[in-house]
Structure formats: structure tokens, C-alpha cells
Amino acid sequence: MIGSLTGRLAQKEPSRLLVDVQGVGYEVQVPLSTFYGLGDVGADVSLRIHTHVREETLSLFGFGTALELDLFERLIGISGVGPRLALAVLSGIEPPDLVRSVSAGDVVRLTRIPGVGKKTAERIVLELKDRLPEMLVVETDSPDMDTEIPRVRDDVLSALLNLGYQRPRAERAVERVPTDASGGGQFEDVLRQALRELAK
To answer: What DSSP string runs through the chain?
Structure first.
């Protein structure tokens, strides 16, 4: 099994990478939480890898942090949650916020993730709540401004997707919104400014 890859970023798309390792190209699927932490095409990249084997298919899923990989593997261990849905979850909520939402039993927050319905959210909370490492729960137990802003942006992105905007366009609009407290701290403010960006 492949546990990690270190090489050059040959291609980069929001959900898919091509990593050149000494002339061999590895196609790796990644969540947005990993994608946004990567450099440009041609940059060096190092990813933790989950190798998923099913029948005659072998798929590689890559992650920038140990927390992302840990959460992914816990998610796919839940009945009814496959690798693609697990990636969607990690793309729709920052890993620390996912830990916090699960430990708090916040089903409503999880249902804001595109592709996650109420039953799936309830199952995630039920099966993960007592299985999260205690250290992770403690580390994410005290939200501050640095974690509140990503949470608001996740909510705004979900709202834009529900309004019918395509994900790449919606993501670009949210990224252009300032992150300072006066302009980017409240859901309504961020949504309003993102809609202005989309109207340009």
C-alpha cells in the first residue's frame, strides 16, 4: 500500500492532482482543505495517502495533514459513507470544525455540507462522537476568530451552492471577501459581499 507521496505537482484541479514522482505520475484525489494548501503547478508536494482498493480499482486519496487523513479514514468506516462522500465532507467543512461539530452533536451544521442529508449527518455524529481522539476534541474545544472565519466562509459557500452557483465560481467569490472582522466576520456580511463579487 502507498502511505505517502513526495514529488512535483504536475497537474492541479480542485478535486484531483497529478503528482510526478521520479517520472511516474500518480493521480490523487484530494479534499478542498488539502487543495488550498498546495503550491502552484511545478511546486514540490508531500501528501499523506490512503490507498483504497475495491474489486479491480485502486484509488489514491491524498491529504496535507495527519488530521485530514485520520478523519477521512474514520468517515469511510461509517456504514453508507464511501470515499467520495468523505471527501465531500472534508471539502465542505474545515477539519477542526468537523471535530467540534461531531463532539457537540451539531447535526444542523453537518447538513449544510453539500451532499450530506440529515440521516447521514446523524450517523456521522452517532458513530464518530465517541471515537474521536480526546486530544483532538480538547484542541478544538475553544473556538477563536481564526476558526470562526473559516466556519462562516463554509456556511456562505454552502448557501451559494444551494442558490445554484457552480462551486468553482462560488469559491472564487468567497475567497475575494476580506477576512477582517468588519468585512468578513458575519455570515450576512460575507454572503452579501460574495454576491457582489458574483455580480461583477
So the answer is: ---EEEEEEEEEETTEEEEEETTEEEEEE--HHHHTT---TTSEEEEEEEEEEETTEEEEEEESSHHHHHHHHHHHTSTT--HHHHHHHHHHS-HHHHHHHHHHT-HHHHHTSTT--HHHHHHHHHHHTTTS-HHHHHHTSS--HHHHHHHHHHHHHHHHHHTT--HHHHHHHHHTS--SHHHHSSHHHHHHHHHHHHH-
Residue 187 to residues 148, 167, 173, 197: CA-CA distances in angstroms? 10, 18, 14, 15
**All domains of the chain in start order, with CATH:** 4-63 (2.40.50.140), 66-139 (1.10.150.20), 145-199 (no CATH)
Q: How many residues does the chain have?
A: 200
User: pLDDT (tens digit, 9 = 90+) per residue, 46-64?
Assistant: 999 999 988 778 899 999 8
pLDDT, one tens digit per residue, over 79-98 is 889 999 999 999 888 888 88
Query: What gap in Å lies between CA 129 and CA 56, rounded to an integer?
Result: 33
